[in-house]
Structure formats: C-alpha cells, structure tokens
C-alpha cells in the first residue's frame, strides 16, 4: 500500500516534476499551494494543469498562504519563466481548487490519517507553520515532514540563504523547532546530486514521451538560468527530495543536529546548524549531507519514460 502524503508546493518547473514523481511513488491525498516561485495565481494554475495533464484530476488542490508570515520577499520568474512553466503558455485547466484553506486541510487530513500522513514540503513552509500555530498537536499526528530547504554556506538567493528558507524564515523556524519528525535536504546536496547535464537532458528529450516532453518544456528556462549562474545543467532539488522520501537508500550520508533559522538582517533565511551540540537542544532534524545521484537519475528517467 502506498504511503499517504500531502504535496506542499509553490508550483513551477521542477515542482511539477516532483509532483509527477510523487503521484507515481505515493498516495497523494492533497496538493497545497503556497507563495514562492511565481505569482500565486500562476502556481495554482500550474498545479491544476499538471494534475490534469497526468490524468489525476481526482487529487484535491487547496489554496494556502499568498504571502509569507513577515518580511519582504520576491518571486523568481527569471528562474522558472514568467508563469513558472518555462516558455510554455499552458491552457487554462478545467479542474478547480477546493474551497478550504490549505492549513486547515493539513490539520483535517492529519486527523483523518493520524500517524500515517507525511508532508512533502518542497516550498516555503508557511502553510505548515500556520497549521502548527493553529493546532500544535499536529506534530503528534504527522508521521514525517520532508523538507527541501536551507543551505550549509552556499545560498542560492543571498550569499547564505536558500530560496525556500529566505522567502519565509519565520515559518521555517516555527516548523523546524516545532517537534516534527523532519528530514531536510539542503541546497548543496541537490546541486551536487540532482543536476541534469546536457547529455542527460538530451537523453530525456530523446524519450519523446508525453512526460519527457513536459519535462523539457517546463524546465527550459530553469536550465538556462542554472547554466548562467555556473551550474553544468538544470538543478532539480524538489524531485530529489521526493525521491529520497520514497527510497531512503538514496541517502549516502546524514547527520542529526539541532537546526535554527536566522530571521534578521542580511543573513535572513540562513540555516544555523549546531554541529557541536553547543545548545544541548533536544529538538533535532536529520540533515542529508550526500545523496546517490545515479539512483536519483534512474528514478527520474523511469518516471519520464512512461507514456
């Protein structure tokens, strides 16, 4: 029986591929949308369209926070395209979102599937933070939270901050210190293990399936941007995180440490790791330090090979 998950997303390019993989790997009982990559209305449209494209209109979509809890933030159309799907002007989907706020849906689903529900959090953590603030006992009902977020030292949005943590550091701080069972996949690990090179891109393009064509279209600008900033190809952090959640043998190295998030000044969004257990904090998260790139890319090719 497939594990039950909520897919929490700021839907653009790689998020859509991560959603595609999640639908294959898990029983996705809900998709929750949060502010982040592009304008909120485009994120909603992208999620609804992706589900329709894959023939999964049965999966409910819940609209969540349209801004972070505090602070100034910005969208990153230069990374994902004006509407988040590369240069693809997708048609308007017929599927509609549910009439329930995402954080409320998370709370309700955690009660319905108590102690078996997992959250694939590949976006800013606003929705989950708001759910926790409304009902702190949710930590006892959610089995696992998988987070793509944070950076050791190599920020992709500021010198030190990864985008998801930078958009809503208050939410990240609340979730990470809330007592959830967390595995966290930082930016550097995804860059090292989830970069699709030119040769791999051509291999995906040559598959010429409905799914591989989707991949090429939505990630076109992501690929160009990644190369522009010095990467050898498009980076797919969300897809790697989902695959690690599905198959823990991808983890080649991890540590369990206390983590905090900086919420002030130029270092806002920075991930703080207590490497030497200086704080003696009992709240610790599993941090992935190395992942199996070969195994991840095999999973990706297998998913994209399907008609």
From TrEMBL:
Every copy of the Inosine/uridine-preferring nucleoside hydrolase domain together lies at 5-297
Keywords in alphabetical order: Glycosidase, Hydrolase
The molecular function GO annotations come to: hydrolase activity, hydrolyzing N-glycosyl compounds
The reply on keyword Cell membrane is no
CDD domains, per this entry? nuc_hydro_CeIAG
Gene3D superfamilies xref list: Ribonucleoside hydrolase-like
Entry's Pfam families? IU_nuc_hydro (PF01156)
Q: What is this protein called?
A: Nucleoside hydrolase
Native source organism of the sequence? Stygiolobus caldivivus
């Amino acid at each position: 029986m497939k594990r039950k998950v909520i897919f929490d997303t700021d839907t653009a390019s790689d998020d859509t591929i991560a959603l595609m993989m999640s639908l294959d790997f898990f029983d996705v009982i809900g998709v929750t949308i949060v502010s982040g990559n592009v304008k909120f209305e485009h994120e909603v449209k992208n999620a609804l369209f992706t589900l329709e494209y894959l023939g999964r209109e049965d999966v409910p979509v819940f609209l969540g926070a349209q801004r972070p809890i505090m602070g100034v933030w910005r969208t990153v159309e230069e990374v994902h395209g004006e509407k988040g799907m590369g240069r693809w002007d997708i048609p308007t989907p017929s599927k509609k979102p549910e009439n329930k706020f995402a954080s409320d849906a998370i709370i309700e689903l955690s009660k319905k599937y108590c102690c078996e529900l997992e959250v694939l959090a590949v976006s800013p953590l606003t929705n989950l933070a708001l759910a926790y603030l409304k009902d702190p006992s949710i930590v006892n009902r959610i089995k696992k939270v998988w987070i793509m977020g944070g950076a050791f030292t190599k920020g992709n949005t500021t010198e030190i901050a990864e985008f998801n943590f930078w958009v809503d550091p208050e939410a990240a701080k609340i979730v990470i210190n809330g007592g959830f069972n967390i595995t966290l996949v930082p930016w550097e690990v995804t860059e090292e293990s989830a970069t699709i090179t030119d040769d791999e891109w051509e291999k995906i393009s040559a598959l010429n399936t409905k799914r591989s064509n989707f991949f090429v279209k939505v990630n076109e600008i992501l690929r160009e941007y990644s190369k522009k900033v010095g990467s050898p190809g498009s980076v797919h952090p969300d897809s790697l995180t989902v695959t690690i959640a599905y198959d823990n043998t991808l983890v080649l190295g991890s540590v369990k440490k206390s983590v905090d998030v900086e919420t002030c000044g130029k270092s806002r969004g920075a991930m703080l790791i207590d490497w030497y257990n200086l704080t003696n904090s009992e709240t610790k998260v599993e941090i992935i330090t190395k992942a199996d790139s070969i195994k991840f890319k095999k999973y990706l090719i297998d998913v994209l090979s399907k008609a």
